[in-house]
Each structure stands twice: as structure tokens, then as C-alpha cells.
Amino acid sequence: MTLRTIRPLALVAAFALAAACGDGDGSTGLDPDQYELVAVSGSGQSGIARTVLPEPMVVTVRRLDTGAGEKGVSLSWSVTQGNGEPTRGSAVTDEDGRASTRLVLGSAGDHQVRASVAGLDPVFIGSLTSLPAPAIQSLPAGTVAPDDTIDVIVSDLEPGMPVEVLFDGVAGVIAERQDGSPATLATVVPAPVGACPGTRAVDVRLRVDGFSSATRSLTVSVPAEPFQVGQVLVMQGSSEVDCALLPADGGTAKYLLVALSAEFENDGNFQVTLGASGVAFQPVDGFQPSVRSSLDTRLRAFEQRLLARGRAVAPRPARTAQLFAQPQVGSTRQFWVINNLDSLDGDLGAADFDRVTATLEYVGVHSLLYVDDAAPAQGLTESDIQRLGDLYDHILYESDVDFFGEPSDVDNNDQVIILLSPTVNGLTPEGSEGIVVGFFFGLDLFDPSTPNCSDCQFSNDGELFYGLVPDPDGDFSDPRSRTFVNQVLPGVMIHETEHMINFNFKVFVNRLSVLEELWLSEGLAHMAEELGGDEADAAGDITAADNLYATNFGRAFQFLEDPSASSLTVVDGNGTLGERGAAWLFLRWLAEQYGDFFIRGLAQAPEQGVENVEARTGESFFRLFADWAVALWADDLEIPDLAARYQIPKWTLRS
Questions:
Q1: Rounded to the nearest 10 degrees, what angle do helices 609-617 and 518-538 cross at?
Q2: What's the DSSP call for residue 551?
Q3: Crossing angle of helices 577-594/609-617, nearest 10°?
Q4: How, if at all, do strands 109-116 and 85-86 pair?
Q5: Where does 98-148 show beta strands of DSSP type E?
Q6: CB within 8 A of 369, min separation 6: which ones?
Q7: How many degrees, rounded to 5, is the angle at CA 285 between CA 280 and CA 286?
Q8: d(CA 630, CA 568)
Q9: What is the dihedral of CA 594, 600, 601, 602, to 10 degrees?
Q10: 496 in Cβ contact with 20 (< 8 Å)
Q11: Which residue in 554, 563, 560 sits closest to 530, CA to CA?
Q12: Of 389, 498, 564, 648, which is the most buried if we count CB atoms within 10 A?
């Protein structure tokens, strides 16, 4: 894990967000006398069944005469051995002629991945092994004490495979390891988290490369001795409140008391007694979700009403080659673009949309980028369009697909439509603190001819992202410069593409009539921005990486400055910047515990919200919430003997 310090950037505030979907294969075939397809890396890996291999499979298309890589070639990926699946069904080569995918391993056994380019011989990347999931076979019977060394017997643990033994999430020290079938891990038991003297049932599990095993229960005694430096006690208020013994050492010891509530419906008051003194806590005065709903809230609520009315989106029959032809740069198309956000609270009419004509400026494997003909002069240059399209095709889209899954493709064109229009600029009233940069609208995934759905006539019948345009003279709202638009659009595009992917899995794949709860939906989309920043950083595009990271830092700063003013799981989900910062930091902390690809399961699951998190982690939400709250404060303090669970190592939050 790379340690990252937040860079001193200009932080961009308050965006409403968006995007779309795609894949594509525009290749008509390459001449095998001039080009070859070569496997570069990725073979020889192994991982736990149903996890994602850590390293991508990489191939290159190169010219035979010069050996130079060929940019812009479309590839398809498939699995020819084993029952895994590539994270990307297709890809396009970058400036070095390279393309990649990752592999989601299937059941235990050997796997092989095939890369294909029209006209060239395919290549195969093999020696990919899916391993059975390790499991705790047995623990000692009876009661053990903290600092005891116990034998944890583990089945299906490969020799040398890194493993942790977690006790209620806290890793015990493995004093000795004997590989074999089964393996034996002599592990030191850490002190239980929060209890009065007596005994406590502790959940024990294994963590291996992001995989988390099922739990087994272990009974651990709690000694009648004082609280130690580095210990964390989680005291859950109930009819029998847990207690902690604090040493009377003349006042030199310091303790952090974090008051938090994981209740979702009721306000509550409680009191903590410290010796002869008491400290009372009550709900924050005047805490209310924002009165003005964000654009994302209104869009998701509108989509939910359509689904709740039984307007389920059904997959369309595949179009034949005769019916679908790739549009060409310079061609035009008309679109409906919503111009009145207040209309989202009711039924839509023609006056709530602009009917715009836009010209196709960029054709990529994953995207079609149109610019509204009504856009002001001095807009994006040809090089701006090329860079934006390439960034989406090579980094933003592919990162989203790797970490979350593929979006739908209701129009059967394997591409996301990106529409940049001044109507989007006009959605932000002049002088507003927040800015509508862009959005994805689920209405576009409904068939315009859906019976008994008057709103559906305004569907653009495909995966589509709406974005703003440069407006230097402020003709449509406040002035927006080219530099500003180039800076903020990529983060919104990758964010909203994740929303589109999440919609696909909830509605198309899982056949639900309910969307993800907004707090978790937004948290996942903000994770998409961060992970896209990682991909841009790895590709050497530091400017794009900084821009993708920056807005999360701004939201996190607002949350950390006053945590009690924001709710992680605010029921109304109005999405203040502080709430979005909390959601991102919570998922970042979870990813530290379970690996970055853990979020792929969250995005694709049929459950929603807290239930989704508990199902994916196997831990109670209260415990996760409490430990995260401690980590936010304890990160980077270097407290002796503090467990790694109470750190967020990727980012130095105090910086």
C-alpha cells in the first residue's frame, strides 16, 4: 500500500454529478503481415476463489516493422479455461499499444484468459490459479485469556500465503506458523474490545488478500485490570452498559471518549459516569438534513418513483448489424435535456426539457462525445475533446468497470454517450454556492414507448452523461472557463458512471424495484473518483490524478472539521458535502480492512445500505461504525500498541 499525503490543491466544492456506460469494437481487422498481438504480463498469478487477481492481464498490439505499439485498437477479452470472468469484456489500446483487464476468479482450479483482435492471432495468458477459500477448522474449547497463545487450525491455507487472524476485527500476533494440511497458526489473543470483568464471546476470522472467512466464536476472559495505552473499548448503551476500569495515576493519563449513535430512527440521550463525575450526551442541537435537496437526491428519487410504479426497465432485444451503424464524427443527433430541476418532484412535461441538436466530436471504444450546437464560442478545443475522450476511454471507464462491474447497454451500442450542453450550465442559478457539473439520469434507460409512462417519452434511450460546457461570458449562468471545465468534468464522469453501474445491478441484474440507499450510493461513487485517481497516477497523468482526488479531500475536510454536524447514514440522504465526505472515508476505511475490490461486491449486491455492508463484511454495523470513528481520530498519531484497524494508512488525514 502506498502511503499518500494530501497534496495542496485548490479544492472544488459542491458538484452534482453524472455519467454513462459502454464498450465497443470499432475495429475492422488488422493486417497480420503488419501487426501482431503479444502477451506482456499477468500470467502465473493465484488468488482466492471469487476474488479479483491483484495484477492486470496486459497485452500489446505492435507494428512488425518498427516494434512500436499501435494506439486505438479494440480488443475483446474472454475466459477459455475456468469459470471466472474478465472485469472488462473489451478494451482499447493506449498510446503504447497496450490494453488490460483484470480477472474475477471462479471456483477453484486453473484459469486462462484470451485476448482477441480482429485479423490477428489471439494470445492466451495462463497459469492463473483459483485457490479454495481458507477456513478456520477449529479453535480451543473453553475460555482463554488475553496474551494467551492459542492454536488456530486452518484448512486450505497455501504454504507461505500471507494471513491474519482477526479477533473482533483486531489482528492477533502470529507467533509461529506450521504450514500443512491443515495449517496451524500459533496466535496471541488480543484483549477483547470493551467489556466489564468476566468473559466475552469474540468472533474470530481469517483475512487473506482481501478475502474474509466465516467466523468462529471464542470465549475470552476480561481481566479486572486497568485500561491500557492503545486499547479501544466499544461500549454499547443498553439496559446493561459495558464498563471500563481507568487507572488513577494522578491525572497524567489521557482518554478519548467518542460519543456516537448508530440508531436510524430515534433521537437518544445517554450518560457516562467517570468516577464521581458524569458526562451527559444528547443529540446535536438543530441537526437536520439540508432543506434543499441535491440534484442527485432528486434524480434518484424520481427514478425510484418510476420503478415503484412498476415501470421496470426490461432489457431490449439485441440490434442486428443492419439496424445499428457507428455514427461518424461530424454527424448530429437530437437529445432531450432537462432544464427545470423543480420538475423532478412531479410529472415531467415538454416545457421541462430543451430539445437540443448536438454534433459528434469524438468516437471512442467506450464513448461517443457530443457537443451541443448552442454551446458558446471559445469552448473546448479539439485537443481538449481528444484528451477528455481518451481519459474517459482509457482510465475513467475502465477503472469503474474493474472496481464496480459493467453498466447496462440498453441501446446495444457498447458505448456511453457524453453530451456537453449549456442547458446543464443553466441548471445552476447565478451566484449559487454549488455547481451542477453533470449528471446521469436513469430515465434514459427506459424505453420511450413504455406503456402508461408519460415521462418515458423524454428518454434518450441509452446510457448517457450530461455535462456542462465552457461559458466564459456567463451567457447561461455564472462564467465557466475552459480550464475549470477540463478540471472538474472527469471526476463527475467517473462518479456518475458508477451510479449507472449500480443502477444496472440493482434493476437489470438483480431485478429489483429499489435503488441503493443514497448515502452508500454516493460513497461508492466517491470511491470511484479516488480509484480513478489511482489509475491516472499509475498511468503518469498526475494532473488528472490530482483533480480526481481533490474533491474527496474537500468533502472529507468539511466532515472532519465538524463530525457531529453530519450523519453518515442520513435517512433523507440529501448529500451535504460533509455527509459525502463521511461516506467516502467510511468506505475507504472498509477497503483498508477488506481490500479495494471489496467495493465491487457492495455495488453488485441485491441488499441496500446498512444491510449491504453487514452482508459483505459479516460484521455488525455498530461495531464497524464505532471502530471507524476511532480510526478517524487516531490516524497518524502513532499510539503505542494501537491495532492497525484504527488507522487509514493510504491517506495521512492529519496532513
A1: 60
A2: H
A3: 20
A4: unpaired
A5: 98-101, 103-104, 109-116, 123-131, 135-138, 143-144
A6: 360, 361, 362, 363, 385, 388, 389, 392, 418, 420
A7: 160
A8: 15
A9: 90
A10: yes
A11: 554
A12: 498
At residue 599's C-alpha, the angle toward residues 22 and 396, to 5°, is 35
Helices (runs of H) and strands (runs of E) counted in the chain = 11, 29
CA distances from 296 to 18, 118, 248, 392 (A): 9, 41, 52, 21
Residue with cell 489482528: 171
3-state secondary structure 254-299: CCCCCCCCCCCCCCCCEEEEECCEEEEECCCCCCCCCCCCCHHHHH
User: What's the CA gap between 402 and 388, in Å, rounded?
Assistant: 20
Write the pLDDT tens digit of every residue in 300-358.
889 998 888 766 565 555 544 444 578 999 999 999 999 998 899 888 999 999 999 99
pLDDT single digits (tens) 23-47:
333 445 899 999 999 999 999 999 9
Q: How confident is the model at residue 504 (pLDDT cuts 50, 70, 90)?
A: very high
Residue 200 host element (H or E): strand 198-208
Preceding omega of 182 cis (within 30 degrees of 0): yes
Pairing of strands 198-208, 216-222: antiparallel
The amino acid present at 553, given as its one-letter code, is F
What is the Cα 488 distance to its own chain's centre?
18
| Cell numbers found for residue 399 | 477503472
Strand-strand pairing, 123-131 and 46-48: parallel
- Give the C-alpha separation, 483 to 488, whole Å: 9
Taking the C-alpha atoms of residue 594 and residue 26, their distance in angstroms, rounded to an integer, is 38
Round to whole Å and give the CA distance between 3 and 633.
Answer: 18
Residue partners of 57: CB distance under 8 A and separation at least 6: 39, 41, 42, 43, 77, 86, 100, 101, 102, 103, 113, 115, 125
Q: What is the C-alpha R_g of the chain?
A: 26
* Cell numbers standing for residue 69: 505499439
**Exposed e or buried b per residue across 209-247, where buried means at least 16 C-beta atoms within 10 angstroms of its C-beta:** bbbbbebbebebbbeeeebeeebbbbbebeeeebeeeee
Q: Taking the CB of residue 548, how many other CB atoms lie within 10 A of it? A: 28
Strands 438-440 and 435-436: unpaired
| Coil, helix or strand at residue 310 | coil
**First and final C-alpha spacing in the chain:** 18
| d(C-alpha 324, C-alpha 22), whole Å | 15
Which cell numbers in the block locate residue 295? Answer: 440534484
Nearest to 232 by CA among 630, 649, 568: 630
Cell of residue 479, nine digits: 462564467
- How far apart are alpha carbons 130 and 128 in whole angstroms? 7
| pLDDT digits 0-9 by tens, 515-557 | 999 999 999 999 999 999 999 999 999 999 999 999 999 999 9
Q: Among all chains, which residue has been given the C-alpha cell 461517443?
A: 368
* One-character DSSP codes across 498-537: HHHHHHIIIIIIS--S-PPPHHHHHHHHHHHHHHHHHHHH
